[in-house]
Amino acid sequence: MEKLPLLGLGEDITSIDVAVIDMNSEALGVSRLQLMENAGRSIAEEIAKRVDRGARIAILAGPGGNGGDGLAAARHLAFKGYVVDVMLLTRPEDIRSSEAQTMYKAIEFMDTTIELRIVRNPGTLNLQGYDVIVDALLGTGLRGAPRSPYAEAIEAINKSNGLKVAVDVPSGLNADTGEAPGPCVKADVTVTFHKPKPGLLRRPDIVGELVVASIGVPPEAEIYVGPGDVVYRLPRRSWRVHKGQAGRVLVIGGSEDYIGAPIISALAAQRSGVDLVYIAAPRKVIDAAARYPTLIPVELKDSPWLHPSHVERILEIAKRADAIVIGMGLGLKDEVQEAVHSLLVNIPENKPIVIDADALKMLRDKKELIRNNMVLTPHEAEFSTLFGVRPAPVEDLLSRAMTAAQQAQQYSNVTILLKGPIDVITDGKRIRFNKTGAPAMSTGGTGDALAGITAALLAKGVKPFDAACIAAYINGAAGALAYKEYGESMTALDLVEKIHVVINDPLGTAETALLYKRLPIKRIVS
Ligand SMILES: NC(=O)C1=CN([C@@H]2O[C@H](COP(=O)(O)OP(=O)(O)OC[C@H]3O[C@@H](n4cnc5c(N)ncnc54)[C@H](O)[C@@H]3O)[C@@H](O)[C@H]2O)[C@@H](O)CC1
Ligand SMILES: [K+]
Asked: In the structure, which protein residues have their CB atom closer than 6 angstroms to any atom of ligand 1?
């Protein structure tokens, strides 16, 4: 293997990753308040390494999580014997983060050790005479150039003589890009949390000394897909969106022997929030799909299964689709294989495709068709057929994942979603796992639903690796909700009918989503 793939989200993390990790962490039992407390403590510890007790410290706190970290730091610093002044740049009732509100309440009671000022006129801020200035104004939540009163507060910090310690990100710096479109704190030390952000690495001139502090995020918040991925990586429709812009999916599947599979995929795609779903299939499937008038039928005429004569028509429809899913229920007849081959050769590389079920088997001797923007969704047996290697059992999760990653590395921008009791998702560079689901998901059709959800997310513009991760999460979570209600009697359609619950309340459903899969796995040391 060329380079060992990374488990989780990578060496540096964007502001979206930060939000994802926070929420995933919460779903795993480590609250945002705990993280904030640890962030505040680590700021205080870094300051204590650099200045002696008794020093005068000004803490400038903003309206969000960044301000909350500063308020937590104030409490720790007061206990350590520093002279602490907290300057809040917003009205207390306007503090946006509920965790920061909690931190603020504690400061209000600390009237013997902390001087608290609500700064109403930032133009009058004078920070002379402080040994340390803590910049807790704005962090990863910054959008655009800082506005008043933060712009003035940033200027005041830069004019001061004390040691400037930035919390997480120097205020005014875009943590993702390293751009500073307006006033920006020029820090001596930046204490960032969990992992460095790309913008920090690009701007040593603004960041000063960079310290990366651990705040107790469980690695599993990155390794496993979680509700935060659903909340922060899925685009939501706005009023400005026209019909079709939220995504169009084309499902190609079914035959006279397998009627339901492509319909389940299509319904799952639709419930995942796309605007249009085409279903291209032989007559029997189209007749059965007539029950669902929101699907757009494309009848493949004059053959009980997919046939090379259908290719031209399908390619026409494919032009209108943003993503395609192909395979479920097609069967393996020669004519079908010929048609699939011709479709895959002719669909342009920039169009994302999900390859599922029978279409996977067809690629065994035609690996040259595996290309850019493809998501392959094999279960273990399909994986073994396709690649000629059997992955290790789930208990040996890392070896299992490495086998999949090794295959993905043979191609560029191909994602493999290896389904199982714990799903493995890898593009060869990264590996993540999904643990949502329930044992009864062995019932027929749940894989078809997963392929449909994946295609829907691709059609909405989610990148293939993220689409596969999130689809696995949603599918498993919907399965767990259905299992909770129907138990052993659940069907794939019950799962489809729970997709909306997961998408609309990812955090609220996370506990059920993770309830049923407690498997013994070998420890991974990363
Ligand atoms: N997982 C993590 O890394 C953790 C992050 N935490 C902290 O939380 C921060 C992120 O919190 P938030 O998302 O609340 O974001 P921020 O604390 O960065 O602040 C966002 C707020 O600033 C305001 N704002 C945004 N752009 C502005 C502009 N151009 N001019 C004026 N005001 C503007 C908005 O009202 C918004 O509510 C991180 O930087 C970090 O300090 C910690 O609490 C612990 C956990
Ligand atoms: K800051």
From this structure: 18, 21-22, 35-36, 39, 62-69, 96-97, 138-147, 150, 167-169, 193-194, 215
Residues (pLDDT < 50) of the chain are: none
From the number of C-beta atoms within 10 Å of its C-beta (0-12, 13-18, 19+), residue 484 rates as: middle
Tell whether residue 54 is among the known ligand binding residues.
no
Whole-number Å distance between alpha carbons of 332 and 234: 35
CA 427, 432, 438, 441: dihedral to nearest 10 degrees?
Answer: 0
* Domains of the chain and any CATH numbers: 31-216 (3.40.50.10260), 227-513 (3.40.1190.20)
ipTM of this model?
0.97
Whether residue 123 is annotated as binding a ligand: the answer is: no
pLDDT attached to residue 236: 87
Tokens representing 362 are: 């067809």
Nearest CA to ligand 1 atom 28: 146
pLDDT of residue 334: 97
* CA–CA separation, 72 and 68 (whole Å): 6
Which residues neighbour 211 within 8 Å (Cβ) at sequence distance 6 or greater? Answer: 46, 189, 190, 191, 192
The torsion of the CA quartet 465, 466, 471, 476, rounded to 10 degrees, works out to: 100
pTM: 0.95
> How far away, in angstroms, is 428 Cα from ligand 2 center?
35
Output the CA–CA distances (angstroms, integers) from residue 290 to 270, 287, 444, 451, 493, in the order listed: 15, 5, 21, 21, 16
What DSSP string describes 371-385?
Answer: -TTEEE---HHHHHH
Amino acid at 393: P
